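Work package 3, deliverable 3.1, input record:
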Amino acid sequence: MADYELTDLTIAAARTGLRNRDFSSVELVQAHIDAGEAARDLNAYITPTPERAQTMAAAADAALASDEAGMLTGIPIAVKDLFCTQGVATTAASHILEGFIPPYESSVTANLWRQGGVMLGKANLDEFAMGSANVTSYYGTVTNPWQATSGPLKGKDLVPGGSSGGSASAVASRIAMGAVGTDTGGSIRQPASFCGVVGMKPTYGRCSRWGTIAFASSLDQAGPLTRSVEDAAIMLGAMAGHDPKDSTSVDIDVPDYQAGLRASVKGLKVGIPKEYRVDDMPPEIDALWQAGAEWLRQAGAEIVEISLPLTKYALPCYYIVAPAEASSNLARYDGIRYGLRVDGKDLVDTYEGTRAAGFGDEVQRRIMIGTYVLSSGYYDAYYLKAQKVRTRIAEDFRAVFTECDVLLTPTAPSSAFAIGEKMDDPIAMYLNDIFTVPASMAGLPALSLPAGLDAQGLPLGLQLIGQAFDEARLLSVAQSLETAAAFDKRPIRSGAA
Amino acid sequence: MSEQLIDGQTGSWEIVVGLEIHAQAITQAKLFSGAATEFGAAANTQVSLVDAAMPGMLPVINMECVHQAIRSGLGLKAKINLHSVFDRKNYFYPDLPQGYQISQFKQPIIGEGCVSIETEEGGIKEIGVERLHLEQDAGKSVHDRHPRKTYIDLNRSGVGLMEIVSKPDIRSAEEAAAYVTKVRAILRYIGTCDGNMEEGSLRADVNVSVRRPGEDLGTRCEIKNVNSIRFVRMAVEIEARRQVDLIEAGGTVDQETRLFDPDRGETRTMRSKEEAHDYRYFPDPDLLPLEFDQALVDQLAAELPELPDEKYARFVANHGLSEYDARVLIDDRETADFFERTLTDGESKRDPKIAANWIVTELFGALNAADRSIQNSPISSAQLGGLLDLIADGTISGRIAKEVFTEMFNTGSDAGMIVKAKGLEQISDTGEIEAIIAKIIADSPDQADQYRSGNEKIAGWFVGQTMKASQGRANPGMVNKILKAKLK
Amino acid sequence: MSIDRAAVTHIARLARLRITESDKEKLAGELSDIMNWIEQLQEVETATTQPMSSVIEMALKMRPDIVDDGGKADDVLANASETADGHYVTNKVIE
């Protein structure tokens, strides 16, 4: 028996262990399946797939034995249940996809399996990825493995953030080595911050959207959640790439991100956008942000204050664009070809009954907003206006990237909050994404990494935003920050330790 | 003026018509997926996961649909927009799996153009084209398989359509029919739509309103999915009459969508569309703007075949055809091609006027009687050419030629073989004809006397007798000449 | 921008959502709050700005005109709640 827990390994370390035959993929995967069984109350998975995992692990061991290993051979991964997986129920955490079993595999997950990855199960999420706390899932709330060690939250179950809450919770609690999530306005980065893991949204177009259930098509992007920057680099390298089946997937080479991690930050200019210093920001988040800037300066980077004047408009802009696209993307759920159907007295009755029963409150709310802002008489004032503001937001980013190479900001305006909070106040919930949405609106790559704990003992993330398709540099800066932050805390719910 | 005024009880009314033609682009695969477009397959066998709008599916545009739209735009003498945008048109319907149709709303691929039609008086009228845009076809709802259910077949779902929108320049049922006929001919000429209205690859939505001459446009009704040119004509007439009667009875026309029922000869409100629509168009975020450069347009223009109007002008100017023959021959491309092939197939060149005459009268007559189209004519252009050669070189007479033609049509044999097998060659041997005539004159002394005493009309009787005796094979010119000499 | 019950009813109909009468009031309030919050966008000057058409700069990809899909009626119909004779089946549609 090894003198360490298999579930504590990073992907990078596990790859070495597998190649050295220190353990098999079957053993590694079984350790994660067992840990997952023990942590079922976190509700991180909607559909665990242990049998498939073991079949894939056995195949991985065979590949390792014949030296045919890919980038992720034998590595157990959780898949946000927004990716269609062939022969495995895919729900988007919605009642409306009741019983849906895709006869196809999403391009991103197909890439992961081609590189030898092993699927542990389908991770919980907010319904159709609409939420910031993983409280809108039809399959129940996900619990954050972290708990407050002091203060009013002590002893309470906390949200993992959202929408990739199950993925973040699984990675943080060591029941998955890594996870693949999606980020529309912060759905990877914000839960990564709440759960103390690394979460990355690549540039829009870097990963294929084919086979990923759409929320907001112009924003959705797949990305990794891991316990180290290096692991994020490995996973992104395996997921990314051009897909002729997605018109918005970009046909440019995927660099070797892991190799790129060695690049120095010396001489790089790191921008600090002053508009992110919002009025009611908790002082400890501000302090951590300044500490982050200081760490990068000590590593040789130059810190420059920059301005993104439209920052505060990104969130309301997002809440026009994303619901508008969603209202249209979710029109296909009509009960005829797949999923739930509630038969009514006539066609309209069937449509309305199916969709009323199938969609939860938040999804319905966003469909209503989206339908409204596109409707006759309001299109110009809302949707068109928002797309113009979006142009200006992207122009702002382009302008600041003539002055600096990456931006450093906090990931979220708070640490994790208690389950049940902000439930009755949609806008308060939306404000969770205030720091993550601007990069989404501009399609830029961004990454959150855990940088410290707040006074309650809960993790806080820092966000780095890079230039389009400059993920390699973003990752190298992140690794420098990770080294300096030396974040080594682990949640109370994380296996044996 | 080819305007058709309707006489109402309170005076006359003018008809105003605008047409939206939905023409299926000729392509192998659908507009945004790799499923086949072929007509008539078993239900849902030509459906990709994209066409069925499975979760997470994405559209990728078929290049050939773009090219076909550009070619069509060139054929309609229209502005080609190098930058256009695909929008989503949102509405719920069981045969619309995505819950939206990908179409082009604000920025279509093709802008303004024009189509010239011939009016009933023989003049030319220009009908404005507002735009042409690309869009997805919907699936098919089958209502007659079950008393309480509708069945859905998505084979058509996602097939690429070109919607051609006319300006409201049309003023009569005849003009509406002429416009559809002409647009159909143009698309068929350039090979962008097969124009098959029975299979639904070309159908029209007809917008009809009426007004007092000179006044502002009245409220229009849209008659959906009219699927033959005859029905276009009928629908305009019936709907215009309905509106006039309605207004004159003190009613008002509601802007609405109506169905044309040819069996009952009426239009009626579509119940399923009674709800006011709000399509919530917005640019499809799954697609980027459609952009191409002028070089592509130029290349497609250079490859474009001759269009009907140009062909007509050339047939009249270069081939010396009558306007009537030219118009009939250019009506569709197959006929025009048949005609041109008839002139050149084989070794010799043939007289265009004679060839046109044979096609327009003999061939069309026979095809009509046999209910066949020129594409499956039993007589090929080369065979018809062969027949014309036999006439030209005097091997057979025009009269015999008609007999040979009938035989060719019935058997598919070459003219030369029929002539040879039946011994129908024209007799042009002077001695042989002289011998026949000498015998007739000898047998008919009374008639010969009549001629000699000044009754020259009786020469016709001798010609008839000679032809009869030669079974029609004697060269008529020679018969006339020899008769005159012998009867002196 | 205030959204009243009537507007909620209208939007819900467009979106084919059945909202109970009791929920309409609550939803009207929530949607009004959200729209009022969104209203701040009007402060942004956009008189000369083009609406964003794509966040990444690239040309639209095109596929060749090749039939490489279809022929999978079983897959297409596999998840439907009701099928008959190779068709999807739904309530009678009256034209």
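Chain A has 16 helices and eleven strands.
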